[in-house]
Design a protein that fits this description.
The protein is elongated and about 95 Å long. It is of the alpha+beta class. A 4-stranded antiparallel beta sheet has the order 3-2-1-5. Strands 4-6-7-8 form a 4-stranded antiparallel beta sheet, with helices on one face. Strand 7 and strand 8 form a beta hairpin. It is built from 1 helix and 8 strands. Helix content is 30%, strand content 28%. The termini are far apart.
Length: 174
């Protein structure tokens, strides 16, 4: 039996073809992966805000006291806590009171774009307040957020049930 003297391994041409295929696949996959990660990051931020609003509703019911969520549209901040009631002769900001207030800042690259009250009113001085009542209802409204890829998310707070619905308006993939 004759044995061929062919060395084991790959030729240079075979290695170059494989490396070329790997780089072509990477060129198509990595940008889509980065876009998907950005979308997941934005959706996670919106879900956190939704969870805070549900928390405010549940605390209002549990403590039998009104709670308020104040969206600061200029500072991109949400504060949730018990509604501060005015003292006799004193002024009140009618915002979250005390150490029970929770402050949330959206992830980097996300911002509050706007808000609309149930009656169609818009925020004054960049502050939008949603009241949560002990009976489970709210003052209602809608808050719109936008990420750095210009994807818009709407948080709609139902006036009667207090439920929060998230809707995504994708304008970046036109």
């Amino acid at each position: 039996m004759k044995r061929r003297n062919r060395p084991f391994g790959f030729t240079l041409l075979e290695l170059i073809v494989v490396l070329l295929l790997i780089s072509l696949i990477t060129a198509f996959v990595v940008p889509n992966l980065a876009k998907s990660l950005g979308r997941m990051h934005a959706e996670a931020g919106v879900r956190e805000i939704s969870a805070l609003l549900r928390y405010a509703r549940s605390q209002a019911i549990t403590n039998n006291a009104p709670y308020v969520a104040v969206f600061d549209l200029h500072a991109d901040r949400l504060t949730v806590g018990p509604l501060e009631t005015p003292q006799e002769g004193g002024a009140s900001s009618a915002g979250p009171a005390g150490r029970d207030a929770k402050v949330y800042t959206p992830p980097e690259g996300m911002r509050f774009e706007g808000a609309t009250a149930f009656d169609g009113g818009t925020p004054q001085a960049g502050l939008f307040k949603v009241l949560f009542f002990p009976g489970g209802g709210t003052s209602g409204g809608q808050v719109t957020m936008m990420d750095k890829e210009e994807r818009r998310f709407s948080l709609s707070i139902d006036m009667i049930t207090g439920s929060v619905e998230i809707e995504q308006h994708d304008t970046s993939e036109s």
